[in-house]
Write a structure and sequence with these properties.
With 366 residues, this protein is mainly alpha-helical. 73% of the residues lie in helices and 0% in strands. Helix 2 (12-27) packs parallel to helix 11, helix 4 crosses helix 5 (73-108) and helix 5 crosses helix 6. The longest helix has 36 residues, at 73-108. The N and C termini lie far apart (51 Å).
Length: 366
C-alpha cells in the first residue's frame, strides 16, 4: 500500500488520468480505436532522441559558449533566455528547463550579490514555454493538435510565429529589468559534447520531424528510428517518460468516452471561436495545457482558437504547464528559502504576460 501511495504521489497526473479512464470505461466503453497511435509512437521516438541530446551534452556546451560572451549579469540572463527560447523549439520546454536552469542557478552560486536571480529564473521558464509553442514538435500539445487537425505547416508557423514575435519583444523588455553586475570573477569549467553522436541524433531528429510533418509514414519510420537507438545507446530507453505516454493513452480513452455524451458535445460545438479560445486558456490554468488540448480539440473545429489558447495558456499558474512545475522544483532545490518570493514574481510575470498575449491574440481569433 505504501508503494502504491508513493507512486500516486510521484505521478499525480498519470494516477488521475488512469482513474478517470477506468471510470469512463465503466460508464461508457473501451475502444482501442480511440487511441491515436501515431501521436503515441511519434512522441516515444522524439523522447528517445531528446534524452540522447541531453546525454551527449550539446545544449550544455552551447550554453557555456554563450556564457563566455556575457559581459555582465544582464547579458548573461538575456543569452540564457534566448537559448531557452531556441532550445525549447527543438528539444521541448521540459528539456530546455532541465538543462539550462541548473546551469544558471549554479552560476549564481558564484555571484552571491546578484539581485536578478529570481527574475532570470522565471524568464528562462517562460521562454521555454513560449519557444516550444513555435513548431508542431516543440511540445506534446502541439504534436497532438497538429496531427488531429491536419493543420498546414505554413499556417501553423504563421499563427505561432506571431506569438513568438510578441514573446521575444516582451521577454527582451523584461530582461532590461535585470541589474548589470560584472562577471569577471567567474571561472568556467570547459564543457564538451560528443560530436559523432550529436550528428547521428540530429539526423534521426530530422527524420522524426519529417514524420511529424506527414512526409514519412510513421508505421515504419518510427520503428526504424527506435531500432537505430537500440543499437546506438539502449540506455536511453530507461530515461523515457513512459508515464507521460501512458497518460496520453488515458486521455484518448477519456475523450473517446466523453465524445459519446451528446450534451457535452453539443455544448462545446455551440461555443464561438473566441469562447473556445478563452476556454482553452482557462482549462489550462487548472489541468495544464496538455490535458486541455486533449479534452477540447475533439469537440470543436476552431483549430486556431485551440492551438493559440493552450499554448498561451501555458502561462499563468504553476499547473498551467508541467514545465512550470519542473522549473519551480529546480529553483526550490537550489534556493529553498526564496521559494515564496520566486512564486510571487513567477505569478506576477506569468499572469502579466498571459493578460498581454491573451488579450492581443483574442482579436486574431476568427
Amino acid at each position: 500500500m505504501r508503494r502504491v501511495l508513493d507512486f500516486i504521489q510521484a505521478n499525480k497526473l498519470l494516477s488521475i488520468s488512469l482513474f478517470l479512464a477506468i471510470i469512463s470505461c465503466l460508464v461508457g466503453r473501451f475502444s482501442a480505436g480511440d487511441i491515436d497511435y501515431k501521436v503515441i509512437l511519434t512522441l516515444f521516438g522524439l523522447m528517445l532522441l531528446i534524452q540522447g541530446f541531453e546525454q551527449v551534452g550539446l545544449l550544455r556546451f552551447v550554453a557555456q559558449k554563450l556564457l563566455h560572451h556575457s559581459q555582465d549579469s544582464r547579458r548573461l540572463v538575456q543569452l540564457m533566455v534566448l537559448l531557452s527560447l531556441i532550445g525549447s523549439m527543438f528539444l521541448t520546454n521540459d528539456v530546455a528547463i532541465l538543462t539550462l536552469l541548473p546551469i544558471y542557478l549554479k552560476i549564481l552560486n558564484l555571484l552571491p550579490k546578484f539581485k536578478g536571480r529570481l527574475l532570470g529564473s522565471v524568464l528562462i521558464i517562460v521562454a521555454a514555454n513560449l519557444g516550444s509553442s513555435f513548431f508542431p514538435f516543440g511540445n506534446p500539445q502541439n504534436l497532438y493538435l497538429y496531427d488531429y487537425y491536419h493543420v498546414a505547416f505554413s499556417q501553423f508557423l504563421l499563427w505561432m510565429g506571431l506569438v513568438l514575435l510578441v514573446s521575444v519583444i516582451a521577454l527582451w523588455l523584461l530582461t532590461l529589468l535585470v541589474a548589470k553586475d560584472s562577471l569577471e570573477e567567474i571561472e568556467f569549467k570547459q564543457a564538451t559534447f560528443v560530436r559523432n553522436e550529436s550528428f547521428l541524433l540530429a539526423a534521426l531528429m530530422a527524420i522524426m520531424i519529417l514524420v511529424v510533418l506527414n512526409l514519412f509514414p510513421y508505421q515504419w519510420t518510427v520503428p526504424l528510428v527506435v531500432l537505430a537507438v537500440l543499437f546506438y545507446r539502449r540506455s536511453l530507453f530507461r530515461r523515457v517518460d513512459y508515464g507521460l505516454l501512458a497518460t496520453f493513452v488515458c486521455f484518448f480513452i477519456i475523450v473517446g468516452n466523453i465524445g459519446e455524451a451528446d450534451f457535452i458535445r453539443e455544448n462545446l460545438h455551440a461555443l464561438s471561436s473566441k469562447q473556445v479560445y478563452l476556454t482553452s486558456i482557462g482549462m489550462s490554468q487548472v489541468i495544464s495545457n496538455v490535458p486541455a488540448a486533449f479534452l477540447i480539440a475533439p469537440f470543436t473545429d476552431y483549430q486556431q482558437a485551440v492551438i493559440l489558447g493552450v499554448n498561451i495558456g501555458g502561462l499563468g499558474t504553476l499547473l498551467a504547464s508541467l514545465a512550470n512545475l519542473i522549473g519551480y522544483n529546480l529553483f526550490h532545490s537550489f534556493y529553498p528559502d526564496e521559494t515564496k518570493r520566486f512564486l510571487g514574481l513567477f505569478s506576477l510575470v506569468n499572469f502579466g504576460l498571459l493578460v498581454i498575449l491573451g488579450g492581443i491574440f483574442f482579436f486574431f481569433i476568427h
